[in-house]
Amino acid sequence: MKRSAAAVGVALLALPLYAQQAASTVQGSAALPEIRVLGTAEEELKQAPGVSTITSQDLEKRPPANDLSEIIRTMPGVNLTGNSASGAFGNQRQIDLRGMGPENTLILIDGKPVSSRDSVRMGRNGERNTRGDSNWVPPEAVERIEVLRGPAAARYGSGASGGVVNIITKKPTDKLSGSVTLYALQPEDSLESDTRRLGFNLAGPLSEKFSFRLYGNINKTTADDPQLNGDAFRAAGNALSSNTLPPAGREGVKNRDINGLLRWDLMPGHVVEFESGFSRQGNIYAGERLLSDTATGAMNTLAAQGAETNTLWRRNVALTHRGNYGEGRSSNVSISYDRTDNRRAEEGLAGSSEGALTINPRTGQPDYSQNKLENWRLAGEYNTPLQLGSQRHMFTVGFEHRRQKLDDPYSTAAVTGSDVSSASSLMESKTTAVFIEDNFEALPGLVLTPGLRLDHNSDFGNNWSPSLNAAYSLSPTVTLKGGVARAFKAPNVYQLNPNYRYTTMGNGCPYVTGSRVSGPCYIYGNPDLEPETSVNKEIGIGWDDRGWAAGLTYFHNDYKNKIYADFGGQNVPAVDPRTGGRPFQWFNAAKAVVQGLEGHFNMPILGQNGDTLKLINNFTYMVENKNKETGQPLSVIPRFTINSTLDWQINPKWSSQLTATFYGRQKPMSYNTANNTERTGDDLRPLPTYSVWGISTGYDVNKHFHLRAGINNLFDKRLYRLSTTNNFGASTYNEPGRAFFVQLTGRF
Asked: Where is this motif: TonB C-terminal box (predicted)?
């Protein structure tokens, strides 16, 4: 398999060299009928019902304070959740597509996967203390963001079971142009975090064939005050001593980004791009920890100081060739490398310090460790129209090779005992894939887009991902669309590494017949894990006529082989005499189901097609989101989410927006899968329905300056975090209160 995949890859790389000759041969042959060029399968899939696009104009009208996820969450099917349903690290909210969890959302930048979060150690319930990967590109550098959910995402391989977020950056321009943006957000409550951001974008020609694009960003979002949740925590019946922190609010973050792209227009239809970038993200500590009772005096001091307890440095480089050979024939080949260095204050793995920062008694400060994650990727595809009998087709063939290597001495150093004392700290995984797609009009008005992808992974072998999407025009304004695809997610390098061990002492061990087993209990990586797989189905109908638009989509995902490390799902092993602990493992266990409805309704009010005043709405309703065996949710998300925007273009220079988001009831887990016990009392407390409103206005001062100002959370609806691990139900995150923002952009 490895040799055949490599051979296909080499052949695909050679295709562009012969494409022009083939094109001229076809043009010179009078025997062949004329081929009507169709769109590629990728272009057709971006018209699927589960696809949304955010433009640079959208980002300008609704600027995020820091992370792009703040506006991505306004799309249908999107919520922000913690990395697991346990509630741990609940304020590290990340993009969750259709309730499949952040780990099943694949983040791309210009079509290339970004996986810096894989450098963060994974806990037993799937927790990662990570901000995710949606914050590597500043808003000013974004051309558009494509959000693909459901079957349309299957073509992208591992990690896209929930969907794909593709962040497209701005490209070089044929005239020198640039912009500088200043942004400030100030909360009404002095205990909540504020933001200051400075970004720039510069692009233009260097010569007849060379052009460039350069962007940069400096951003600081402070942390919530460590005492922000204190009053609400006490009101819920909790006691706080003078040296104990309540559950942490939102951590701060300091961003530094610089990225450059050099474009070479080699010849008509052929472009070569070289890109390189560097980013640094450092946190501002707010007292975050895994368990609610593990805040030590030293951690309190670090929170009060706003110390930087974790830092990520990301370096990336890429070389891309795009070719256009006429008559719909095109190619895209790229090679890329990115490296993430992850420096973190060491976290305890045992007893009362589990998940807490380990403090050196000599210095009174944390000890730090650093790991290194490297990703290599070679990918390419070729699109060509073909005539098969009387049928016109647009075929795509492609390949992808990914290699991921993680060196984490701290995680393997935590493994003690004579059996593994010399274990390697290196973890590596390789995947090679080939795929083929077709796009054709099977009947008048019926377009079919079948696809097939084969992935070969160095650890678990082969995985097939077939897909079929369809669109049928019922009338010029009404379209019926649907699709079905098999998607998958490979186990991460921590889960696969037999030398990685997560440790918990007696308090974290499971209960059996009413009593807790003796500790310590270990969870080891498992090299025999299978990939998680899901069959994603959707069907939707859409209507679009002169500014009016409406649509409704039903989606259903059957999910199996989900990887768990919960103690409750495994038989309790005997104590290993070499380590003195009970050796559990990550394992494939559960089946799950996710189903729901997405919809939108846009109404023009004033002007042609609503150009002056329009109402834009979308909604998501979750019918079901659960592990079939335990009945527990995969993500703690609202039963429904409604996003509404009243967009008013007052005149060509002046615009305003009124926004509202309505969140339905959120229910926590009712069962503690970590230690095999039922939750009771306040642990089952749901979050009730609530709404958050905002208002903003923007004005073009002149052709060079644009000013926008607004109020987030206009009516000051606030939520306070009461728990770190569902100890107070679904109250595991903060909803920040009223805040004022202003953004000034200068252009030339």
From this structure: 731-748
